[in-house]
Amino acid sequence: MNFGGTIRLNPAGLVVCVLMIVLFLLYLRSGKRPEDPEYVFQKTSLNEKVNLKKLLIAAIQAAESGGREVVKVYLNGNLNEKSKGKTFEGANDPVTDADMRSHCAMYYSLVDQFPDVKIISEEVHAREKCQTKMASATKSTTDSPVELSSNNIEANAMHAESVPVEDVTVWIDPLDATQEFTESLLDYVTTMVCVAVRGVPVMGIIHKPFGDLPQTYWSWNNHGMSSSLLLLNKARSDASETPSIMVSRSHAGTVKSELMSKLGPNIRVIPAGGAGYKVLEVAASNVSAYVHTSKIKKWDICAGDAILRSLGR
């Protein structure tokens, strides 16, 4: 036998083998779910689009659903408060069962309806853990029509618009003002959803779950806004000669001294909790501005950014 001969590879066969290996690896990756830690978000076909009107309606529903979970936990009386550590300013960063239950309700309702959209929440809780915490929050609504509540019928009247799914990112804050929530300062508490297209906030939803009646404020840039936001914007307080600046109650940093040095001592600096609450105060012209100079997360400011853009602020 001649073992000294040469082996010739068929180029076409080699290409086929490589393609089969690549397809097999892609198949393995496609089996990952969005909630799996090792999941890597993959862009879908450039031809696939997302209906922004349907996404707006679902986002309103998600914010309101999260708000109901927050209220349930508060009324139950057992917040199960824990600490995620310290903020950049050294303040405690608490998390409660209300944060997690709201996250479960909001995040998975949107993931189930829009599985190809990139959705980012402040909290992380696997679906299995959500099922043990609140079974009703994880029911799939993929095959169910989006129901309209009294707060989002207005959204259904908007003109439909579709954009490539890879251009869309949804930001969720399941419970804004957690610190104030633990102190029963409930007026500061909101749940928020924001839709950004190509990195620009275009839809903002801020839901206030407490008060005589829960209230939802939303806007879609260049399309419209909720009647609640229109009324809030029209009900402006009388302008004061003294500028009033709203700042963070628990993450203020050096903002007060910076404002004094730039605007002078004749300003009112008002501490308040929750980015969502402060944005609504600006929208109502109850304050001149909301200023934050220390670190802040996108889920804190995205919804408010979209709303103030719609109001021309």
TrEMBL record:
Gene3D superfamilies: 3.40.190.80, Fructose-1,6-Bisphosphatase, subunit A, domain 1. GO terms for cellular component: cytoplasm; endomembrane system; membrane. Pathway: Polyol metabolism; myo-inositol biosynthesis; myo-inositol from D-glucose 6-phosphate: step 2/2. SUPFAM superfamilies: Carbohydrate phosphatase (SSF56655). Its EC number is 3.1.3.25. Keywords: Hydrolase, Magnesium, Membrane, Metal-binding, Transmembrane, Transmembrane helix. The keyword ATP-binding does not apply. The chain crosses the membrane at residues 12-28. Pfam families: Inositol_P. Coiled coil: none annotated. It is a single-pass membrane protein. It catalyses: a myo-inositol phosphate + H2O = myo-inositol + phosphate. Mg(2+) binds at E122, D173, L175, D176, D300. It is found in: Membrane. It is an enzyme of class 3 (hydrolase). GO terms for molecular function: 3'-nucleotidase activity; inositol monophosphate phosphatase activity; metal ion binding. Its cofactor is Mg(2+). Belongs to the inositol monophosphatase superfamily. PANTHER family: 3'(2'),5'-BISPHOSPHATE NUCLEOTIDASE 1, INOSITOL MONOPHOSPHATASE 3. This is inositol-phosphate phosphatase. It comes from Cacopsylla melanoneura.
